Amino acid sequence: MSLRRLAHLTLLVLGLLTALSGFFVAQLRFNYNFNDFYPAGDPDLDYYQGYTRRFGNDNDYLLLGLEAPAGRTVFDPAFLRQVDSLTQLARRQPSVRSVTSPTTLANPVVEGLGVFSLPYLHPQEPARRADDSTLIYRTPGLVGNVFSPDARAVTLVLQLTPDLEKPPGDSLFAALRAGMARLKIPESQAHFAGRIVAQSVFVDRLKWELVVFMSLSVLLVTGLLWLTFRTWWGVVLPLVVVLGAILWGLGIMAAFGVTIDLMTALLPLMLFVVGMSDTIHIISRYVSELGYGASKKDALRVTIKESGFGSGLSALTTSLGFFTLMTSTIRPIHNFGLFTGIAVILAFVLSFTLLPAMLVLLGRPQLREPRRQGHSWDGVLGRLFRQVLLRRRAIFTVSGLVLAAAIGLSTRVRINSSLLDDLSKSDPVRQDFAFFDRQFAGVRPFELELKPAPGRDVYDLPVLRQTERIETYLRDTYGLRFAASPVTLVKSVRKALNGGGLSEYRLPADTTELQRLRGKLRLFRKRPEFSALALPDGSAGRLTGRMADVGSIRADALNAALRQHLRATVDSTVLRTRLTGSSNLIDKNNENLTLNMIQGMAIDVAMVTLIVLCLFRSVRMTVVVLIPNLLPIIIVAGVMGLAGVNMKVSTSIIFTIAFGIAVDDTIHFISKLRLTLGKEPDIFKAVRRTYLLAGKAVVTTSLILVGGFSTLLFSKFDGTFYVGLLIGLTLLFGVVAELTLLPLLILYFYKRPKPALFTAEPAVRNGATPGRP
């Protein structure tokens, strides 16, 4: 079979596979499921899932905060009419189960055999406003939950159907905003918070940013490719190959039913900038061979032969960098690592099938300046190589000082996260959440399960008293601003049975009084607040609440103190407790971040070590390869410590990805050196020749990688911004180490050079490079 027929057949097969991938890509969906970020396989996750089956999710709510007009309080009749109209609108929405609102709050009173509800507010009776406000601000559980302490804002708490997805959530938002517009409530006076708020905003922004990042990357890479090759095919062919690899990668992801989330949204950009490496190495080598006068067939043969091995190894190391993310217990990171790693391998396959096929069918390209263009790079790289040799002591000294400083600064990096910490502090959504932290109980859920000892239930007096002491600690020491439990139910019923007076809002004095009260509990058990706080048989209860989002470091300290307090003060023969909830699970991710990162880096380093040992059978060469690639990682860790950037879910992937990508050029360099050493036994000449051959591709690919990742700086997600910034810095430091430290370390470790080896050769000194290097 002729070469052209083989190329046609290759294009046909690849075209069919690309069409199949396109079919699956059309089925891709965007998703931001808050629950996906829980640590998979964790015993606490299993426990929480059972807990939600008993009591429901702790984040199935929507907070709608409304500020009173300037100069008025929340007791203004006109404002209360607006609040009541919005309350009735919210109650009619299909995804809303119940609404807690200032205008529907009532003080229950039991008289005879009936239960009567006395409203707290009487907006139609202005004379009662002072009494209403006094009663509200003396009643536990209202201020901070429904009314702000300064009487300038109120909150509607909407209890939603479990695990509400984005389409019905968006419909709810649309209905509420339309209602506010009809009622002439300015959007600046309304604030939303809750899981479905983050879900809606994140998915919409993911779609927008995916388009923006890809567009910017295509423009940037197109410009760099044109400056590098100055030919239309030098721009178009790499773009076709990499865009095809992206389509394949997304197609496989869609075929396995994986959606695009905050992490997998980075896959197209990652693959675009990373997958470009092999195509640039191939085309650079192909252009060089053509420039030196080789025929098209010979140039392609030499290119495939000399670039295939190094590209295969670099694809392996890069994909391993992503595959190591599969050690994460966080499902989005696991999926991102798996499918991006697969896509990198697919990009390599297309680079050595699709690209050569297109080069065969293209015909011999006409180069603008066949020889001078190649030699301009040789001259620049030759002079740079000479300067590196002459300034070797300064390079080693500066590297050592920078390394020492980076290690010191890296100790300042902390693992810390908070709700919505992927949004900047100035983001309107995050400011809305901060509004509830300032004016109300906060947005961070708290959950503690109450398990009475055998033979008891949550309404036993000793159990209630233990629970009340826990509530006191949580309010006074822990920082919980709102709490509800079976104690709340019993106190409320006792108050209702005694005329509704505030002085009656307390636990029964003895078991005799409690027994009389337990009989009346049946009148209230159909209320949703009862089923949300205690099981029907009383075998388990729930202490739930909200607090300010204090961050995971502070939360970990508070939880440790709470557990110690519970062990010391709670009688296990009466009551057992267990801390649970969505916030607790998110905090647990931090415990795994360091371990997962160390595991990923260890696997990466081990695999690179094995590859270098197989290539050179030399421990010294292994050290040579690791130093210039680990140094940038440590420097970036120092930058994080200096800038106060915390380690969190989104930034924990930086080091493993950066190492896997940065080592790519090193693998190309040493694989070319290995081939060169087969023809040139003199180590100095072999290193110099490899430097000139690989230098152009190293610089070009590094510029494209840094430029591609720099597009992430336009992200509105802080995590994505720092991924772009820190990986870009790592690669920038990496190329500097590649062009300075790497050749010196090879000369020093691989074979100790003689003093004469460190003097520049005349060809280098004069900048002349007749013939091939």
UniProtKB/TrEMBL annotation:
List the subcellular locations.
Cell membrane
The record places domain SSD at 239-361
The topology of this chain with respect to the membrane is: Multi-pass membrane protein
Q: What InterPro entries is this protein classified in?
A: MMPL_dom, Mycobact_MmpL, SSD
Q: What is this protein called?
A: MMPL family transporter
Q: Which UniProt keywords apply?
A: Cell membrane, Membrane, Transmembrane, Transmembrane helix
Entries under PROSITE patterns matching the protein: SSD
* Domain of life where this protein originates: Bacteria
UniProt keyword Ribosomal protein present: no
State a single Pfam family of this protein: MMPL
| Species whose genome carries this gene | Hymenobacter ruricola
Predominant cellular place of this UniProt entry's protein: membrane
Q: Which residues cross the membrane?
A: 210-229, 236-260, 266-287, 308-330, 336-362, 394-415, 597-616, 623-643, 649-670, 691-715, 721-750
